[in-house]
Amino acid sequence: MKKNLILKMMGLLLSFSLFATGCGSAQTPSASQTPAAQAKPVKIGVQPIEDNFPFSVAEKDGLFTKDGVEVQLINFASAQERDAALQAGQIDGEVADLLAVALLKKIGTDVKIASIGLGTTPQEGRFALLSSPKSTIKNPADLKGASLGISENTIIDYVTDQMLKDKGVSAGDVKKVSVPKTPVRMDMLLSDQIQAAVLPDPLAALAQAKGAHLIMDDTYRNISQTVLLFRTKSIQDNPAGIKAVVSAYGEAGQALTKNPEQYRALFLEKNQIPEPIKDTYKITTFSKLQLPTEDEVNSVMKWMEDKKLITKAYSYQELVDPSLLPKQ
Fold it and tell me: Is residue 187 part of a domain?
């Protein structure tokens, strides 16, 4: 009797073991096992400028949720406040320019570029050099000896030098006047306090609408880019979350590009488009995600090194992380 009981128990245990094994092989991964569920929340610093707009589109269209990541968009009034938050670890990423990437690394905040924001093509993210409405300056050659409003040691300064050089004007031939605040620079231009100025859109478009003369802009070749960047520590701690944010940014940029007018109300709500040009200003469109080229990065690094903004140029490999781009 005891032998029969033992045999029966062994049979039951074997059957249970086979059943459990079979169930395990047929199971789909639980939510906690899927890549999306591994993503931790991500905090992104944003400003009311066009480069950041895909984040708003992604939020509106539920793309963050679709890609399995919780994202908090944190608004900042200035790039300085945003960058300080990144340094302190209060946000994980932002859209900035290549100068900001190098300066962040210089002060000890290691960051990596995930993709271009605006600037894959020359038409994206326009900078324009304009003369005041009362000025007789009508072409680049007329700029010699003129006062030119810029923001010193910034992307505006870099773009200015490149445009002047391309048009045969030495940077030393103009009198650069540093006016860091863009609206103030535009007002000084329109009131003829400075003879010329370099402005980004949409203020460049507004200045033109108010009578400023377009001398040149950077739509003839690709001079500058903004980039989507993240703290290296955030990438290491939360690769799934960061990759999901990059993917959603790209999806949103393409949705915006395919049907920009669908997002006009949101565009005007989230971006500081001046009232006089709200109805006519063209909504910015975005290229597919890709990294800046080595030549584009190296050009900025050399300029920064020549300006002594950095002691040594960072290599392309030090600045970019190709693994963050979605697989095409």
Answer: yes
CATH of the domain at 200: 3.40.190.10
Domain presence at residue 4: no
Per-residue pLDDT of the chain (328 residues; tens, 9 = 90+): 433 433 344 444 334 343 333 433 333 333 333 445 588 999 999 999 999 999 999 999 999 999 999 999 999 999 999 999 999 999 999 999 999 999 999 999 999 999 999 999 999 999 999 999 999 999 999 999 999 999 999 999 999 999 999 999 998 999 999 999 999 999 999 999 999 999 999 999 999 999 999 999 999 999 999 999 999 999 999 999 999 999 999 999 999 999 999 999 999 999 999 999 999 999 999 999 999 999 999 999 999 999 999 999 999 999 999 999 998 6
The strand ranges marked E within the chain are 42-46, 71-75, 93-97, 111-116, 127-131, 147-150, 175-178, 196-200, 213-217, 226-231
Out of 163, 187, 220, a domain closes at 220
Give a yes or no: residue 12 inside a domain: no
pTM of the model: 0.86
Residue 42 · residue 238 · CB < 8 Å: yes
Q: Identify the domain containing residue 173 by its residue range.
A: 127-220
Unique residue bearing structure tokens 């059943």: 19
